[in-house]
Design goal:
30% of the residues lie in helices and 27% in strands. It is built from ten helices and 16 strands. The protein has helices at residues 42-49, 115-135, 152-163, 175-183, 196-204, 221-225, 250-254, 265-268, 272-287, 304-312; strands spanning 3-7, 16-20, 30-40, 59-60, 64-72, 84-88, 98-102, 107-108, 143-146, 167-172, 188-191, 209-214, 228-236, 259-261, 295-300, 319-323. α7 (250-254) links the parallel β13 (228-236) and β14 (259-261).
Length: 324
C-alpha cells in the first residue's frame, strides 16, 4: 500500500489531499525509496499555488526526502537495496510514503546522520553550501547579509558563514526569531520594517556589503541592492514575499555596477560528481558540529496542509519535516 499528498488543482493548502496511490516499480536507472522522513520547503508552496508549474495534474509535490532503498531498476549502480539514502531534487513527488527516484540523484547517508537530519538538511543545506561556496564564495573577514536568518536555509547559512570567519547580519520578522538567529551566531539582527540600507551603513561604517543573500523576494529586493558596495553581488534565491517584478537592468549600473544572479540547486548539482561533492561538504560540516540542524516542526505526512499553513504564516523556524 502507498499513500501520497496530491493536488488536483493549484491553490491554497486545502487543495492538498491524502490519497492512496499505486506503489511504483522502478524503471531502468531508478530506485524505489521508502521514505522515513520528508522535508517541507518553501518551494513546495510555489508548486502548490502554481507559481511554479507541475508537468501535469494531479500530482504529488515535494523535493526532498530520506529513506531506505527497497528495490532498484535495471542498470542501477549508484545505490543498492537496503541503502540509507536522501535527495533534494526533482521531479517533484516526495510527499509520498514511497516513490521511485532516479538513482543518480540519490546520495548515501553517512553514519552519524539520521533520517530526520538528512530529510531536513538536503535541500536547505545544499542550498546553503552552493550559495556560500560557489555563487559568491565568502571569505574570512567579510560582512554579509542573510535574509530570513531564522529560517531553515538562514540558520544553516548563519552558522556556516560564522565558521568561515564572516560577520553576519541577519533579518527576521519577530523578536523571537531575532533571538534564535543570535543564538546561532548572527552578529547583528534586523527586524522587518527597519531601514535596511541605513542600518547596514551604520554597521559597516559606510563600507556596505560585498554580497546579500535574499530568499524573501519582492519586499526586500530594492533595499537589498541599496546595501551593496560597488561591484557587490545580489543573490536572489527565493520569493517568500512574492516574485520580484521585472526590472530595468540599468539599475545595476546606477547602484555601482552590481552583479545579480538567480541561482538554483539544480544548476549546481547537474553532474553527479557535483551533487556528491556538495552533499559531502554539507555532511562534513554538520558532522563537525560547526553547523547544527534545527528540526523545530514535525507533522504527520497526511497533515502536510497544516505545515504549509504554518510556514506561510511565518510561524516556523529552522527546518520542518513530514513523517510518513
Amino acid at each position: 500500500m502507498n499513500h501520497a499528498i496530491r493536488i488536483h488543482e493549484y491553490g491554497g493548502p486545502e487543495k492538498m489531499v491524502w490519497e492512496e496511490v499505486p506503489l511504483p516499480h522502478p524503471k531502468p536507472g531508478e530506485a524505489l525509496v521508502r521514505h522515513k522522513a520528508v522535508g517541507l520547503n518553501y518551494i513546495d508552496v510555489y508548486f502548490r499555488t502554481g507559481l511554479y508549474k507541475a508537468p501535469s495534474l494531479p500530482t504529488s509535490i515535494g523535493m526532498e526526502g530520506a529513506g531506505i532503498v527497497e528495490a532498484i531498476g535495471e542498470g542501477v549502480t549508484e545505490v543498492a537495496v537496503g541503502d540509507r539514502v536522501a535527495y533534494a531534487s526533482g521531479p517533484i513527488g516526495s510527499y509520498a510514503e514511497a516513490r521511485a527516484m532516479k538513482a543518480d540523484r540519490l546520495v548515501k547517508i553517512p553514519e552519524g546522520v539520521d533520517f530526520e537530519q538528512a530529510a531536513s538538511m538536503m535541500l536547505q543545506g545544499m542550498t546553503a553550501q552552493y550559495l556560500l561556496r560557489s555563487t559568491y564564495r565568502v571569505k574570512a573577514g567579510e560582512t554579509i547579509l542573510v535574509h530570513a536568518a531564522a529560517g531553515g536555509v538562514g540558520l544553516i547559512m548563519v552558522q556556516w558563514a560564522k565558521a568561515l570567519g564572516c560577520t553576519v547580519i541577519g533579518t527576521v520578522s519577530t523578536e523571537a526569531k531575532a533571538k534564535l538567529a543570535r543564538d546561532h551566531g548572527a552578529d547583528h539582527v534586523l527586524l522587518s520594517g527597519e531601514d535596511l540600507p541605513a542600518a547596514v551603513k551604520k554597521i559597516t561604517g559606510g563600507a556596505m556589503l560585498p554580497v546579500v543573500y535574499d530568499s524573501v523576494g519582492r519586499d526586500t529586493f530594492i533595499p537589498s541592492l541599496d546595501c551593496l558596495a560597488p561591484l557587490g553581488t545580489m543573490v536572489s534565491f527565493g520569493n517568500a514575499s512574492g516574485a520580484v517584478p521585472p526590472i530595468d537592468i540599468g539599475i545595476l549600473a546606477a547602484k555601482g555596477s552590481l552583479y545579480l544572479t538567480r541561482p538554483t540547486l539544480a544548476s549546481y548539482t547537474t553532474k553527479r560528481s557535483d551533487l556528491e561533492a556538495v552533499a559531502a561538504d554539507l555532511f562534513d560540516v554538520v558532522k563537525s558540529g560547526k553547523v547544527k540542524l534545527n528540526v523545530n516542526q514535525r507533522y504527520a505526512l497526511k497533515d502536510a496542509a497544516q505545515g504549509h499553513i504554518d510556514l506561510e504564516a511565518r510561524k516556523t523556524t529552522g527546518s520542518t519535516i513530514l513523517l510518513p
